[in-house]
Amino acid sequence: MPRTMPGSTPEPAPSVEELEAQQRRLVFGRFTHDDAWRLGSLLVRLARERELPVAIDIHRAGQQLFHAALPGSTPDNDAWIIRKRRVVERYGAPSYLVGARFRAKGTTFEESSRLDADAYAAHGGSFPVTVEGAGVIGSVTVSGLPQLQDHRLVVEALELFLGGAESPGGAEG
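The structure assignment produced for this chain is given below.
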């Protein structure tokens, strides 16, 4: 069940099909260190404009290329980032999608994945960095909001970035 902010109404959760379509659509032509910096900076800007207490992380091939912890975030957010990123690395899919696939089968990731819940979290907020012709090479992760909001923030930033608003390294470049 999606968590919500106090006093807000629950957001409808996207279907597995919608989440899979997001993953197919949000693909890079390339992904450099500079692209990681620009994408991370875009996420920071969006979060600061909204005063969101998040931590942001971008990894590629086992190397952390970007990290920011905004006011209100905590060390727990960094632990969540690691756990969500591990799900992306293992499944090659957004962490929210992995959890949604388990829920669609009438179970939970924690009950049925056979993975250590202290090491893996199929909660929203981590999205694969997929490069055309190369596959999943990394991840971009946000932690600090309810899981659907973490997921939506990452997707929004990826859509802006790949739409050309932030970088020449988008899908066409």
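Interim note for the steering committee: The domain at 16-162 is CATH 3.30.450.150 (Beta-Lactamase). Residues 33-49 form the longest helix (17 residues).
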